[in-house]
Design goal:
The protein is an alpha+beta fold. Among the domains are: about 100 residues, Transcription Regulator spoIIAA, CATH 3.30.750; about 100 residues, LytTr DNA-binding domain (OB fold (Dihydrolipoamide Acetyltransferase, E2P)). The protein has a 5-stranded antiparallel β-sheet with strand order 12-11-10-14-13. Helix 1 runs parallel beside helix 2.
Length: about 290
Amino acid sequence: MIELGYDYPLYRPPSEANSIIFQVTLGCSFNKCSFCNMYRTKEYSEKPWEEIKNEIDLVSKSYPQTEKIFLADGDALNLSTSRLTQILDYLKEKNEIPDIIFLDINMPKITGIDFLKSSKTNANVIMTTAYPAYAAEAYGLDVLDYLVKPIAFERFLKACNKAKEMREMKALKGTTGNQPNKTSDHFFIKCNNQIEKVFYADLIYAEAMLNYVMLYTNTKKLMVYVTIKSLEEQLPANIFIKVHKSFIVNMNKIKSIEGNILDIGNEKIAISQSLREKVIHQIVKDKMIKR
């Protein structure tokens, strides 16, 4: 049993019963709440990077199968952006990537949005905040879910189950490779409490809708709780292409291209200006009849 350099008292939330705790800050930066005396015996301070790094190294060596970590004490997110991203990047390097990051919008030294923009983490991020106005921007940064306080337990559980499903999908992807089997002509999704089979040839396009993606097939629409980024990574790149931050299309279903507009199915979909050259090249390469 290894002993990390904990400064007591140290509090472990019930939800983190099986997590490794890294004490990256000590105490609470405010420490004046009338209803809380958890850190009254401590003065707030931030642990030096070398100490944090050494503890991560120790845990990585002693417990290589670690699946969950928890950053303590009361104000771990009071750390600077650079220090937080340094910790997450080092955890990633050591293959101790957290499954879920619960992130607020309004934090002492950094906003949740700024953290998302600067972090390279591959963890599923769930926003827990009192500010609903930032939802669209957060979903644009590929957060898994956006919970507005006060959060009902049922809603919280739904977000956690969504993260669990995402983790299982990534694990399955890891065993089969980044792209589906070349001989496969379909994939499966979970929709309305049942597993649906979708043929690649039937899927016309996918559209991001805040915290889910709508799949448009030849016969129906299917709502899937997954990010557009994750879907793009799991669909075969020789058939599907992302043409806009909110749209992935089946290249075989495109009828025509006029300017920045794709005519596909019964819809007109705009190509993002920044992606236009790449998209056009991918769609028409080796297929354009020349003079």
